[in-house]
Design goal:
This is Monocopper oxidase-like protein SKU5. Keywords: Signal. Belongs to the multicopper oxidase family. InterPro entries: Cu-oxidase-like_N (IPR011707), Cu-oxidase_2nd (IPR001117), Cu-oxidase_C (IPR011706), Cu-oxidase_fam (IPR045087), Cupredoxin (IPR008972). Helices cover 5% and strands 34% of the residues. By secondary structure, the chain is mainly beta. The chain has three domains: 123 residues, Cupredoxins -  blue copper proteins (Immunoglobulin-like), CATH 2.60.40.420; 167 residues, Cupredoxins -  blue copper proteins (Immunoglobulin-like); 149 residues, Immunoglobulin-like, CATH 2.60.40. A six-stranded mixed β-sheet has the order 10-9-12-17-14-15, with no helix packed on it. The protein has a five-stranded mixed β-sheet with strand order 11-19-18-13-16. It is globular.
Length: 515
Amino acid sequence: MWRALAAAVVVAAVRPAVATDPYAFFDWDVGYVTAAPLGVKQQASRRRQFSSVIGINGKFPGPAVNISTNWNVVVNVLNDLDEPLLITWNGIQHRKNCWQDGVLGTNCPIPSGWNWTYEFQVKDQIGSFFYFPSTGLQRAAGGYGGVVVNNRDVIAVPFGRPDGDITIFIGDWYNKNHTDLRKMLDNGKDLGMPDGVLINGKGPYRYNDSLVPAGIEYETINVDPGKTYRIRVHNVGTSTSLNFRIQGHNLLLVETEGSYTTQQNYTNLDVHVGQSYSFLITMDQNSSSDYYVVASARMVNDSLWRRVTGVAVLHYSNSGGKASGPLPDPPQDQFDKTFSMNQARSVRWNLSAGAARPNPQGSFRYSSINVTQAYLLRNTAPVVINGRRRATLNGLSFTPPETPLRLADAYGVRGVYSLDFPERPIHGAPKMARSIINGTYRGFMELIFQNNDTRMQSYHMDGYAFFVVGMDYGEWTEDSRGTYNKGDGVARSTVQVMRSSRDHRKSHRKQCLQT
């Protein structure tokens, strides 16, 4: 568990201004820190003799951004890495302001030794989000932290005030540094099985002497008996879907990525790469001992992946002893897509909550808005193009131009990209392209993701949100629209698409979202 850091680490101030919303200021120094979460330092590169773990203001994970609806956020980032850097704000919406979303295509990377100031407003937003470095596979080295957007005081929260607020980061971890992992991908190789799973940047509690070596620092989450906590869980990993559970405790889901959900209990929940959930958890169990907090890999061979399990400890203030014995059981069948699919379908929007909504058009009845564009986006297994391992959509693999798209628009630079991304998969050999979707300002777009790969995929819409209206197996057809959820599909920014399955999303398109 991490908390907001002191002012000496994060400079945060609120500046009430006449006729404007408050401002919060942060100064970040992004550089390498000494850390060995799994007992082994990430292997240093030729240019870097020491640890390759990325921290912010000397901390890993980085500082919290704790703000409220409509606040303006100003983050000055100094890049002390030895390579370019971009910070993206996963799930934060950048309405009419894509210049701040921190991804290639809209921003130039911050050169080593330089600084850049991000400034954006969390207009009409609430919820649980996180930030991370978006280029060069730096995310595999850390550099991430949490973003909490609180309701304004005049807007009621659809549940009682929790006794505490806790953030938990779960994610796969490789002992190889991110530059070596990047070279592996460029050479057409798969990253392979991670070396472990971290919880809040720390390795597993030694629940099994043969699987977990001695001396690894683990996370302890301190709670008081009888109290209820809001626990925000983020999968900040690179490629591994994780099942999250707390031994003996129910997880009451209340929010995901900026949308309050219908409230229902889970004993465990699959959290896929890039996703965020928040739960209410009451400390109502016997305090004779501590309890396990577990994040274990999903859709894998359990016997081979047993060590790829993150374990922390939930510690009651009156606990009588350490956690011991076997971990709480994961879902029975690791490859049971139906279980995970039904979980995903059960996450619904709370239509009665009086909170900020992600629909700038003013209507929350998305089924009544006319769809102006529709794209069927099909991915297949990675292929080698021009000697490098590439992912494709509709047979095209995007390569970022040297001049960001919006910068090219602003200065009238021609030939940087083309507005000819195909609405359906194309025939022929996969190829490199700079084709982008030509979204219509204030239009309403339908996106269908068809996963023809052999592994799970996470799809994220940067700087915006979409409604998840359907999820099913097999090939999508026009008749599939008859199965859409036209009432309470949840609005979020990241969705899982299981292998050989499809997902239907409806999204408002803004002028700045052209990727």
